[in-house]
Amino acid sequence: METTNTYDRISELKAFDDTKAGVKGLVDGGITKVPRIFHQPPGKLKKFPVANDTRFSIPVIDLEGAKKDPITRKEIADKVGDASRKLGFFQVINHGIPVSVLEEMKDGVRRFYEQEDEVKKQYYTRDYSKPVVYNSNYDLYTGLAVNWRDTFFSLMAPNPPKMEDLPGVCRDIMVKYSNQVRNLGDLLLELLSEALGLKPGHLKDMDCGRGLGMICHYYPGCPEPKLALGTSKHTDNDFFTVLLQDHIGGLQVLHEDKWIDVPYSPGALVINIGDLLQLISNDAFISVEHRVLASSAGPRI
């Protein structure tokens, strides 16, 4: 029996992929409607209510004094452990990375996406062995819906790429920022170890801090944000994630069947526990589902 449905999803996905311009290319082209490949399945966007209960706010932990004062350090480790057990998410301030470096990192990501298409396209690939991988949606052909987001990715440790392989518009800040994040990561691994009742070097000695992947997302303003998601619900398949987000917001954490906003806090970094840390902590720490809403504002970095 013939069908009257002429929607060919695979062809639309391939046509979108072949542009090598991502979601930003659609927006730059003046699109006013979200294409069908981005439409989330019915009910998926509103499956759980969004909470306005302040009891479930994401804790902000001040790391000042963690390297100097044993009493303060114990208090900080307890807070990190408590947040990692109950929410899987927390924010950190006084983390040692200057605000100027955070701002330059966001600017560098913006420069990458806003450079000429022909320059950017040289990095567009689905070969994840490349030193820099730029594309839109790693699961483009397998996901239920395409996310309203473009991404470039590079493994910065343990075997960093050659400087000349990194994009010229942001290579210096990528290296500088990743080095500083590794220092912060080492401190967090110590605090997480202590929160588990272990020696400070336990997790680091297991090589939990050996690798560092830098994932740089760009979420253009969406003309119909109620139809799409910036990032679908997922957990992170790492030990933990250090997230630098801008003022646009939109990140939400699933807690007790409610979506909790992770608000933008100037100078703060968001930390969330990944699947590997939940695994090796015997479920003491939890890797929780989170998502990013699409927004008419943007771009979000």
Automatic annotation (TrEMBL):
**Cofactor(s) the protein needs:** Fe cation
* Matching PROSITE patterns: FE2OG_OXY
| One Pfam family of this chain | DIOX_N
Question: What are the Fe2OG dioxygenase domain coordinates in residue numbering?
Answer: 210-301
**Keyword Metal-binding carried by entry:** yes
Give the highest taxon in the source lineage.
Eukaryota
Keyword list, A-Z: Iron, Metal-binding, Oxidoreductase
**MF GO annotations:** dioxygenase activity; metal ion binding
Q: Which family does it belong to?
A: Belongs to the iron/ascorbate-dependent oxidoreductase family.
Task: Name the chain's protein.
Answer: Fe2OG dioxygenase domain-containing protein
